[in-house]
Amino acid sequence: MSYSAVDVIRVKRDGGALTDAHIDWVVDAYTRGLVADEQMSALAMAIYLNGMDARETARWTRAMVRSGERLSLDVGRPTVDKHSTGGVGDKITLPLAPLVAACGAAVPQLSGRGLGHTGGTLDKLESIPGWRAQLSVDEVLAQLRSVGAVVCAATEGLAPADRKLYALRDVTGTVESIPLIASSIMSKKIAEGASALVLDVKVGSGAFMKSLERARELASALVSIGVDHGVRVSALLTDMSVPLGRAVGNAVEVEESVEVLRGGGPADVVELTVALAREMLSAVGLSSVDPGEVLASGEAYETWARMIRAQGGDPEAPLRRGRHKHVVTAEADGYLVSLDAYAVGVAAWRLGAGRARKEDPVQGGAGVLCLVKPGEPVVAGQPLLELYTDSGAAVDGALEALDGGWSVGEAPVARGPLVIDTVRS
Ligand code: URA
Prior knowledge:
alpha/beta; Transferase, Pyrimidine Nucleoside Phosphorylase, Chain A, domain 3; Pyrimidine Nucleoside Phosphorylase, Chain A, domain 2; Aldehyde Oxidoreductase, domain 3; 3 domains; 4-stranded mixed beta sheet
């Protein structure tokens, strides 16, 4: 069946529901270049404004999965993946993937690069000398069998419709639509072939979803698409109003992840890593394994080292920090009462840890170390933040982003829970 793109746009513009046939046709025709970017932009804006219901969203996801290949992960262990909607200092994939592999599951993490103030997992790992993000499908399968965990770039053949549409949404103000975000995330994850998926839906200033209500809505949309495609999906709603851990950037986040894998590291990073690992293990019938014990035993670090070596990296190599270091100090005695995730994320990004356009390079050594976190005492003159970059001229922009992004008060304030809720089907 063939349609006119204008007719399909009109249906959504006027608040109607797209039929399955409309959706299959328009996604396929756009992927093949038969529907023009300006037509898809108009349709994306109509969807942004008028939404899609659960049936339309599930069908849109299916059409995007079908635009490319779907991997078959027959690797001798149950497969389970994690996806985060993105946050500041969110390095959890780094300790989590080897931890869950050390617990007996296989973790395929086919990731994208960071855009904007939230960092990308591949950018972080590329700060390890020699580490290679690009793997063939055969290499992915071989590594899943031998190591149990792989973090690498998504292959070109996975959900090509989403790759094209996401780039278009990025430049047409249509990213922040729940049905479009949910179908975008789930199409890639379903195509990747894992049998179960745990989502970390971030809420707060440093996240896509600023309110709990929107985050819950996104989590429900993601879980419902999973049900429709026979993939077991659950979602943790987690706080992203404060950066996760103390390190925000690339090499600094790898260093912090290694601390966690060696049994130390910040309590919030450990808590979230173990909570997500528990959920992932339970999704594939391994709930009798205690990820906290495995983390403490050092086995997860061994799996990390093998995972890094398998992709050409040297897990023992010292990591570079940016040549310029700038320290922000406290002006008064008291307690740090706030440290805004978005401000710190933008600062790290301006220091060179992130990119503004897909093709921009990132600096492995750029980033921010949060030496003090909310709730901790400070004295006047005490260093609060360390900024690292290779471009000294970037420091002013980072300081501007941090202006008003932290505050010291006389009494400590209590923080809410890190894991706010869990949504399951
Ligand atoms: N991440 C994705 O993969 N897609 C979106 O639309 C938003 C975040």
